[in-house]
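The protein record minuted underneath.
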Amino acid sequence: MKAVLRAWTALAQKSPILTLAATNGILGGVGDILAQTAESKNRHDRRLNWDHRRTIRFVTWGAVCAPIFHKWYLFLNRCFPLPALHRRSAFAAALAKRVLADQMIYAPVGIAAFFVAMNAMEGHSWASAKARLSEYYWPTLAANYTVWPAVQSINFGFIPTIYRVPFCSVVSIFWNAFISWTNAR
């Protein structure tokens, strides 16, 4: 495992955007396959009817979002630099500002973009996108607020910048399974 991490780190240092995009795309696909597997277990026939196009959409979404996440995290680093951990109150205040900015700015926009992008990649109309947003946006944003503030507190506070997108990508396997399932309903 150490060798894999070293190899990944070397690739990320040499070509961060491409490495992050590939990693996030692959893990997005894994999350969708997990969702499809869970959905198949809930059906009467229990057979996995894998929708490869759906998985490709999640791989595409993950790959496209990774550079955006990376730039967003760098932006948050610049706006809210973290002081040394031993300065607890200053550290906590800066960390809270990062998480708050992430959850109040990026999360609402990112969730809306997800539903609109998936709708477009599925070939549906703008009216369909609005209907999907109307039905799923607020419940998904509420679910986001139960998971991501804690995840981002760990991510922004303790994970080195180059590993932040992959850290979120691993958590996103389960989050993507949830939103894939929500999107497919």
